[in-house]
Amino acid sequence: KVTEIGQATFANCTMLKYVHLPSGIKSIGEMAFVGCNELESLVLPDNLRNIGDYAFSDCKGLISVDTSRVQCLEMMGTGTFFGCTSLKSMTIPLGLVNLSKTTFMGCKSLEDVSLPEGISIIGECAFGRCGSLVQITIPDSIEVLEKYAFSECEALERLNLSQNSCLEQIGESAFYGCRNLKDITIPQNVENIGEAAFFACGS
Asked: Percentage of the chain surpassing pLDDT 90?
């Protein structure tokens, strides 16, 4: 019974269009599907716990990722979907505490992201250069937005934060170059706003 897909198992399989991941899969290794440019959709299995660094990076044809079956995802590595330029939407499953750096960096078609309660950190450049993202709701559990977390999200207009938010730190250049940002409320718990956090937010 397969429980793990190893490092670079399907890397650069440029004609791969579909893959069925059985429910027993618990771990997807580093760069497992990197560069699978024809892969258009993906259903993550029920028991998945860990996704390694750059597992699906540069899958330029990937449009959708179905996470509805995943019961408790514990880790998404650095750059998991880095450069997936066709990815339009994503629901992050329950269980994740840290959204790693560059997770969605360069996903220029990404329009909708749902983040669950329980996440405490949005990592460095996690959504950097997501040029189609118009709004995002930050769960109350988030404590830290690391540097460049949403940098150069040029379409971003609204950041939804409640006054009950646990947010304490907004990192350096976190919203650098978000030229259309119009609406943000800084929660009362925020203690530190980093240098150039909102630099070049033209609106």
From this structure: 95
d(CA 159, CA 190): 15
CA angle (18, 67, 29) in 5-degree steps = 65
Residues in the chain: 203
Closest to 113 measured CA to CA, from 70, 185, 69, 65: 65
Distance CA 156, CA 201 (A): 10
- For the CA atoms of 25, 29, 31, 34, the dihedral, rounded to the nearest 10 degrees, stands at 0
Task: Read off the pLDDT of residues 51-107 as tens digits, 9 standing for 90 and up.
Answer: 999 999 999 999 999 999 999 999 999 999 999 999 999 999 999 999 999 999 999
Q: What is the DSSP string of 30-86?
A: TTTTTT-TT--EEE--TT--EE-TTTTTT-TT--EEE-TT-S---EE-TTTTTT-TT
Q: Enter the DSSP assignment of 112.
A: E
Which has more confidence, 147 or 20? 147
Q: How far apart are CA 12 and CA 8, in angstroms?
A: 8
Determine the Cα–Cα distance for residues 189 and 143; give it in Å rounded to an integer: 9
Residue 151 burial class via C-beta count within 10 angstroms: exposed 0-12, middle 13-18, buried 19 and up:
buried
